[in-house]
Amino acid sequence: MSLAETGPQDLPQIDFDQYARLSLCHQPTPIEPMVRLSEHLGGPNLFIKRDDCTGLASGGNKTRKLEFLVGDALSQNADMLVTQGAVQSNHVRQTAAAACRAGMKCHALLERRVPDRAADYENTGNVFLDKVFGATMEFRPAGLDMNAEALAVTEKLRSEGHRPYFIPGGGSNAIGALGYASCAQEIANQSQASGTVFQWLVMATGSTGTQAGLVAGFHTLGFDLPVMGVSVRQPRERQVEAVLGLTKKTLDKLE
Fold first, then answer.
1. For residues 81-117, b (16+ Cβ closer than 10 Å) or e, as one string?
2. 81, 109 in Cβ contact below 8 A?
3. For the chain, give me the number of helices (H) and strands (E)?
4. Is the domain covering 3-58+173-254 a CATH 3.90.1010.10 domain?
């Protein structure tokens, strides 16, 4: 984020209490000035939104999405969360922790995306934490449609008598994106309270839910803050299309 000017701004508020939600996140997370980096670069003035401080299982952006996803799962009387990600997925770690917090089971499909792995790659780090949180796991080779794989497993578990709730990779659907529409409101309120007006919000964009939620939230609020996503996986054209599609679905949820 870059500081452009200061000044108060009156904003409407989105009522997020209308959605099923489970409190998981330490919020609001702070916005901190990056003084030394700004000096090193000779400007602009840079700030960072500390969503590493969201609290659940070492924090991260997925916690905000999971508040709405797990809330929706509980409203449907689900007893298990099913999701997918890479072997060392932060999303899977946080989903497993959220399931544990909610008294639910968690089953995850892990994609072997990384070649030349160390011998303990599939037993340490986030995989170890997944197990600590009680998740069960199965592995898949790289290159499959992992959401389709996880959906098939969800239906298999349903046929066995479970009440599973499917969460796509990254928690990125219109329900999960509500977490970052809520974050957009949080940022807008922090900007208003501090008198700081930001010129750009720059972020990594992968499964699209974070960026789509922010764009939808700022649009709904009428808050002028462009969101620039730096794609971590897909070519620009495909990522733009994916973000736009999910933004439209999230806006439908916010109406």
1. bbbbbbbbbbbbbbbbbbbbbbebbbbbbbbbbeeee
2. no
3. 8, 10
4. no
Supply the CATH classification number for the domain 77-170.
3.40.50.1100
Cβ atoms of 96 and 135 closer than 8 Å: yes
Do the Cβ atoms of 167 and 102 come closer than 8 Å? no
Is 203:228 a contact under the CB 8 Å cutoff?
yes
56: its two tokens: 């659940």
Active site residues: 89
Give residue 23's region: left, alpha or beta (phi > 0; psi -120 to 50).
beta
> Is the pTM higher than 0.85?
yes
The residue written with tokens 């309270």 in the block is: 193
% of the chain residues with pLDDT over 70: 96
Instruction: Answer for the pair 182, 16: CB distance below 8 angstroms, yes or no.
Output: yes
Contact 249, 173 (CB under 8 A): yes
Strand-pair category, 31-33 with 47-49 = antiparallel
Residue boundaries of the structural domains of the chain: 3-58+173-254, 77-170
Question: Fold match between 3-58+173-254 and 77-170?
Answer: yes
- Rounded to 5 degrees, φ, ψ at 200 are -145, 150
Reported as a single tens digit per residue, the pLDDT across 204-231 is 999 999 999 999 999 999 999 999 999 9
Burial degree of 229 (CB within 10 A; 0-12, 13-18, 19+): buried
Residues in the chain: 255
